[in-house]
Amino acid sequence: MAKNIYARTIYFLCADKTARYPEVERIEKTLALPIPKIEPGELMLAMQQHKHKILLVDYQNYQPLNNAIRNLPLTHKIFEIIIFNVDKRLTTDELLSFGNLKGLFYKNEPSEKIALGCGEVINSQNWLPRKVAAQLLHHYRHVIDSQTAPATVDLTTREIHILQSLTTGASNIQIAEDLFISEYTVKSHLYQIFKKLSVKNRVQAIAWAKQHLVSQM
């Protein structure tokens, strides 16, 4: 059965819910759906209280928001991300920093087009420019092709536990608390894990874990 366009809600991530955001208001009007505002502090609570939010983010305001909460959980799998007002071609690492990126719109794209794309995301579709989709596809193919076979990776039990925690979106502090170790020790373990898996960052390590540790998760 086709999903109703009203089944899910898009939330606009902003620094101040009381402020006006004309561009978002235009998208909201064209989409004919309310787009509630949510501040970074509320987003942290949302991880515990509300699952599967769709977040609309103004790329021009993203860095201040990220600075406000350094562990802003945009890479967490429970959040689908739509970014708009993008003024340049983003690097692969920048794209990956948005985690479950579902939509991307460049600066000066009409609100009608953004609203159309948002509607598709609500209905569980992607709305990504062709070059961005190709960029991400190339990255994930490279990750899969370059991963070492599990039999040749000598991971300790503690390292496996940390990898499993990464796949849940846990921060270093959360992992430290769960395993009763220091944050410094977590960072040390992550360094060794990245080295053993021949990966560069958490995103690549998570991709490896999801492919190779399925039976243990």
Key attributes of the depicted protein:
about 220 residues, alpha/beta, Rossmann fold, Arc Repressor Mutant, subunit A, 2 domains, five-stranded parallel sheet, disordered N terminus, Tscrpt_reg_LuxR_C, DNA binding
Describe the model.
This protein has 217 residues and is of the alpha/beta class. The chain is built from 10 helices and 5 strands. It has a 5-stranded parallel β-sheet with strand order 2-1-3-4-5. Helix 1 packs across helix 5 (111-122), helix 7 (157-167) packs across helix 9 (183-197) and helix 8 crosses helix 9. The longest helix is centred in the middle third of the chain and has 17 residues, at 130-146. The protein is globular, with a radius of gyration of 19 Å. The two termini are 31 Å apart.
Helix and strand layout, with pairings?
Layout: E1 10-13, H1 22-31, E2 37-38, H2 40-49, E3 53-58, H3 59-68, E4 79-86, H4 92-96, E5 100-106, H5 111-122, H6 130-146, H7 157-167, H8 172-179, H9 183-197, H10 202-212
Parallel strand pairs: 1-2, 1-3, 3-4, 4-5
Please summarize what this structure is.
The protein is built from ten helices and five strands; from the N terminus they run E-H-E-H-E-H-E-H-E-H-H-H-H-H-H.
